[in-house]
Amino acid sequence: MALGCxxxxxxxxxxxxxxxxxxxxxxxxxxxxxxALKKDISRTESEKEDAGDLLAESEEAISDANRALHDLAxxxxxxxxxxxxxxxxxxxxARTIETxxxxxxxxxxxxxxxxxxxxxxxLLSGDNPNRINRDLQMMSYVSQAxxxxxxxxxxxxxxxxxxxxxxxxxxxDLEDIAQEQRExxxxxxxxxxxxxxxxxxxxxxxxxxxxxxTKLERDEQRLSGLVDQLSRxxxxxxxxxxxxxxxxxxLAAARAxxxxxxKxLAAARARAERERLAQQGKPGAxxxxxxxxxxxxEQAPPPRSEPPPxxxxxxxxxxxxFASLKGKLAPxxxxxxxxxxxxxxxxxxxAWRGMxxxxxxxxxxRTVAAGRVMFASWMRSYGNLIIIDHGGQYLSIYANNQSLxxxxxxxxxxxxxxxxxxxxxxxxxxxxxxxxxxxxxxxDPAGWVRF
Length: 451
Description:
Residues 1-24, 267-316 are annotated as: Disordered. The protein is 57% helix and 12% strand. By secondary structure, the chain is an alpha+beta fold. Among the domains are: 53-210, Helix Hairpins (Orthogonal Bundle); 213-235 and 318-447, Glucose Permease (Domain IIA) (Distorted Sandwich). The longest helix has 82 residues, at 129-210. The radius of gyration is 36 Å and the shape is flat.
């Protein structure tokens, strides 16, 4: 018994680890592309050293720990729901088993009151044959009912035992999740203390850097460069998706044509067979040759020297879906708008290309519309940054987050939490920097979002 429980626990642990490994493997390719993209951006910058970069590792670690805690909380919620479902099933089975026991007791009591006569006694009793036949049928019905009731009772008892094992597995899952949460919280506290020390040591240097208009321009150019590259990737994916649709349509047309030719060939063969049979009775008749099947010309494979086609990705949203939401979008975070699009900076830097919404640290940041996460990582001056593609070359940008809750490639629904507000990237106030872009160019969110 102990060996059986151990094997079940090992299988459960292996399955859970396998699911996590598969999820990480799916993200590995995208993460590699993202890392290459960040390196390419860094190579184009004139200044490599920046005091804010020292915060990157710590703030990314804090974001990862918070995202892990968020995922674990969701996993814990799912496990608790599964546990509740099993408990409900157990209660239902208990009621059913109690009812079946009462039914079985009633049958046995009736059987006892009837005198426990068997079939042989009835046959040898010499009683009226009609009555004997009726009693035998009644005994047969009672026996069948007893057998069905016993089989159902055994099945329900077995299900109860199986549910007991499921409950034990779910409880063990909850213990594992709780242990992971404790480890992640310890890591989070350690990174927060490290970040506080970094901010204290770099505060004066960061204050001086923030006054430089050239640095602000460089930061915005860096973000624009990232957006341009992401837009190019989106266009390539859309083109690949369109080419794939055309290819599928061509294949469907080719299949339809082949089916039509096959039907025509079958009809021609049928006609030829009828003519051959009709001419067999005529003197000197020659057999009619069967028509040859159509020749299929296979296309030569493309040269191996050609680069592989872009990865086909379905559109983030239907064409025109985001444009139809103008003036209907909900705010990305609950807070006060401190700076608006186009406002001048106090330090003489470039005008604001987005909005800064002051919000409490840890406040939920929600996506303004459905889409796909295209970027989710730390970026100089913008801290933990997440960019979402809404289709039609529309992008929404969320910066200075305390933590990012989504991965690159994740599909998100309108109003779904994607991050928590903070002051990463060296920002003094806690909140969210928010931008909307179309075809790579920023535009005023005020006419789109109901602030």
